[in-house]
């Protein structure tokens, strides 16, 4: 099967400074793929390239069989994104938040939009919270609601930026479970930017590790294999929580 994402030799520079270069990878359908790396390594920059917000200085990004930056590409309506802040609209109920993408991108009548939004809230375990306001729910529930909103248009591919940031370990583990369930039940492919080691080991089939010093990819593969077998000091430091040698 053709990969869901194919990144070919991309580079990014800001103000003449190279963040990464010669980055190539693919993501297969149904995978949970994690993008890792230290602060400033370019994880968010890579994510922005993948979701159509930042055209790479060099190279090519193909998502769902289309060139992301081709002028006639409609791929943006076929992906779901949960931004790091989660960013639910505070003046709207959870149901209204999840209905929003349907209002913007579908011609369905309101009752149908509400019906679909309720189904999505049900999928993330928030069926009973549809009428609540974002200020009335926990951080874990807000993440779930944001995932439900990202799924509103039935995307086959979901991007999550730091989904477990700010959550306690138990809530974070529940979110991991949800991601695996959604992959299992709906066949959704996930690209997750994260630095939660426990979460990576629990959910990621494969990962890509960016590194600021080498301005590119320093590791790629099954995170458990990288943890057990990598001899690269930065990779070992991350996966085994070893301090770097001075
Ligand atoms: N629009 C921009 N203009 C200039 N520099 C930028 C821009 N966006 C990112 N950078 C720089 O690119 C580098 C990579 O940033 P990025 O946000 O992708 O890192 P990150 O891996 O997501 O880090 P963190 O873990 O802290 O979120 C940083 O040095 C950052 O300052
Ligand atoms: Mg970031």
Summarize the structure.
This protein has 246 residues and is α/β, with parallel strands linked by helices.
Q: Secondary structure elements and their pairing?
A:
Layout: E1 5-14, E2 17-27, E3 32-37, H1 43-50, E4 58-63, E5 66-67, E6 79-82, H2 94-105, H3 110-123, H4 139-150, E7 157-161, H5 169-186, E8 189-193, H6 197-203, E9 206-211, E10 216-221, H7 223-229, H8 233-239
Parallel strand pairs: 3-8, 3-9, 6-7, 7-8
Antiparallel strand pairs: 1-2, 1-4, 4-5, 9-10
Helix pairs in contact: 2-3, 2-4, 3-4, 7-8
The structure holds adenosine-5'-triphosphate and magnesium ion.
Distance between the termini: 45 Å
Give the tally of structural domains: 1
- Measured on Cα atoms, how large is the radius of gyration? 18 Å
Number of strands: 10
Oligomerization state of this entry? single chain
Helix content: 25-40%
> What is the CATH C level class, in words?
Alpha Beta
Class derived from helix and strand content: alpha/beta
CATH architecture verdict: 3-Layer(aba) Sandwich
Helix-strand pattern: EEEHEEEHHHEHEHEEHH
Task: Briefly note the CATH topology name.
Answer: Rossmann fold
Strand content: 15-25%
Question: Could you give the order of strands across the largest sheet?
Answer: 6-7-8-3-9-10
Largest sheet: 6 strands, mixed
- Average residue-wise pLDDT: 92
> What is the CATH H-level superfamily?
P-loop containing nucleotide triphosphate hydrolases
Which ligands does the model contain, each kind named once?
Answer: adenosine-5'-triphosphate, magnesium ion
